Every structure is written in C-alpha cells, then in structure tokens.
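= Tokenised fold =
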Amino acid sequence: MVSTTAPFTLQQIGTGTSRFPSGVALPTITDASVDPYIRTRPIQTVQVECIEFWPQEKGTYPGIVLLHEWWGLNSQIKDLGARLACEGYGVIIPNLYGRIGGMVTGNAEVAEALMGKLNDSMALQDINSCCEFLNSREFIKRNIHGVVGYGMGGTLAMKFACQRKRLRGAVSYYGRMIQPDSALENALCPILYHYAEQDPWVSGQDVQRLRELAAKYNKPIAIQSYSNAPHAFSDETRPESYREAAATEAWATTAMFLKKHLQGS
C-alpha cells in the first residue's frame, strides 16, 4: 500500500520499458543525428532490459535502481518500483536475469538455480549502466542516485555501494554479507541494512561482523533489526514470510534514509 504521506499517488506515476547497452557509453541525441543507421545497425553488445517508473509532474527527481530478489523481475518488485516513484524518485528496475534468459519463477528451487547462474560482476556492470542511463534522462537529477535491493538484490546493492563512487545511498533488505570482509573498506556511500533475525541466509554473527567492520573502516552503515521476522518479510505476496508490522517499519525507515541522502532533507 502506498503511504498517505507520499508526495504522489499511483495515478500520478508513469511507467515504461527501456533497453540500452551494458558497459559501454550510451548513444546520445547527437550520435543519432549524425548516424542514420544507428537504429538499424546490428547490436554487438549485451542489452539491459528494464522497467521504469517516475512521477509525471514536470520536474527533476533523484534516481533509484531497484534490484529484484531471486524470483526475477516479477509483479511484486514492479509494485515496489511504483511505490518508490510515489515517494518522488525516478525508478529503474533491471532484469538481472536478462543474460540468462530473463526468467521469472515462483519456485524456490528454480530461483536458487537461477541465482547460482548469475555472474555478479556482469550484474554489477548492468547496474552501473542503469545509473549511466538515468543520467541521460531529462527528468532525473544527474548523479543523484541510490540503489535498493531485496534478497539477492540486497546483496548486490551492498556490493554496488562498494563500487560506484557517485552513489548517494544503498538499502539492502536481508541480503547476504559480502565477501571478503575487506570489501567494505571500499564502501563509498551510506548503507542501510534491514536484518531479519529469523533469516537462515544471515546469522547474528554475520551482522555483528558487519557492525565491527563499519566501526573499523569508519563507514556509515545503519542496521535495522526485526526480531520476529524471517527472510522476505516485506514480500506481501508470500503469506508464510510476510510480517506487516516489520514491513511497515522497514519501509518508513527506508523512505527516511532515501530522503536524507538523495533529497537532502
């Protein structure tokens, strides 16, 4: 459900699809004007397939790259994209499984297999290209970007926070801890980590180590814990794991974090 305090309603949100090359400079309007064959020339690079959501009110907005769980780019993550747009962001959701067929599943065994096939370095390249694509959008503030990820996407969000210099903030919902520990020394922006204490993916020792590393490297990493919540507690489509109170609290904390670091308030 969209918060009543969000500046926009779902009726004010636009949506569309986008497709652009990964890991290379994006074609500009000038490129298109001087190259009459740009639209028909065979594509030589991998294309990132995405869904976008944005407020339709004229203006410029911070950008968010939203990263899906191991299920793929399903309807639940699309709903979250629209919900984030209602908070005043231009949101782009890449299909992280695009390189392996773009599959979506509701079966945990299939999802685990898909996640196992994911090449993290290529996924991070695709996510970085999403930020470059956001920089080409006239309604997105240049280099005012954040990343939000759930589960598998939450792990990638933390990794991306240690890679892109111009990122303003990263939110990880119950992502696995990144390895090696020294990777966090490269964290380049504030991180908010939502820890489900009943999550078999992440142990209490993992989270304590995250706290210790944040202190050791003097990194702004905030950890929000939910004592009775399992993995995927924010996924309302899965009644066996959904916890409404924890999900509501996590969303409010996420909204405040993003507003502080992306909107400066």
